[in-house]
Here is the input.
Amino acid sequence: MSFDRIAVLGLGKVGRLAATLLHESGFAVTGIDARLPAEALPFACEAGNVSDPALIGNLFSRVDAVLSCLPFHLNAELARLAHGAGIHYFDLTEDVPTTNGIIALAESARGLMAPQCGLAPGFVGIVGASLADVFDRCRSIRMRVGALPQNPTGLLGYAFNWSPEGVVNEYLNDCEVIEGGVRKLVSPMEWHETLYVNGVKLEAFTTSGGLGTMCSTMLGRVENLDYKTMRYPGHMELMNFFFHELLMRDRRQLAGEILTEAKPPVDDDVVYVHVSAEGTINGNLRRREFVRAYYPIEVAGESRTAISWTTSASVVAVIELVRAGRLPSTGFLHQEHIPLDTFLETRTGRLFKGGITHHG
Here is the structure.
């Protein structure tokens, strides 16, 4: 079904920019937040409690789609309400149980159910699947993403430019992988490795949620598949100490508060993307890579942090493709089914053609 009216729930940095990009792409946008931003915005805004079913029900009766930019724990109920209203649903969640619930809803959905439309899961899955498509037999897909300060300080070398709830969640929940053709769960903050992006030394380790639904769609098609978060060296050891030796794993909310207080957001950030696939083409073993460093850029008339524009642009490009009829309009959307070339040709997806690049 075609649509042009969309509600954006949550007007933090990512939600605000996503709503602005949707407005610039011709959508009639209504933004909702408990506290509206002080600055003037180019789209309609309403103040309201997103946990109020009556408010959300009224809103969903007036729009064709909803994009949730809210913490993951709110999304299951929002998806249920969107399903009941028969409208398209999009979010940025990395939470696996939330996504599994949305997959079940999608079986009877009148609209499209599309969670995990951010950077990871989301864009990296699109990239990983596109790299794998060229092989006759694919033996591995490795996806790594790091959202980091450009100028790190302290032993952690980190800044919480992303939701602390989301970071704690992905550091502590089990991680899906395919290893030796077998789908399994492994512990987070393990499988440590060292890698480089444009000469910058980084470490990578397992975290939850970054693969989205790829383990189910790629099982039987790839022998090894995993996702890791990239950080500056030494981060993983310190976070394991914090969560496990100090038992902060049992106090997730407090852990997020402590970490955000210690490492507040910065404007000068960078998003590293390192995706690779290996396999055979006509009997010859080959490796393909997509490696980028994305920095803050000016988008919609303002300088935007790397994590805010990469996340916002990911989901807006997907929404543009759905409106254009290039993606399904009902059921469940797997990010890895979106062609990379098609994604990059959208008005917003073109932003990903920038960045400092390395091709392999």
Remarks:
- The mean pLDDT is 94.
- The longest strand covers residues 137-149.
- The CA atoms of residues 130 and 339 lie 7 Å apart.
- The radius of gyration is 19 Å.
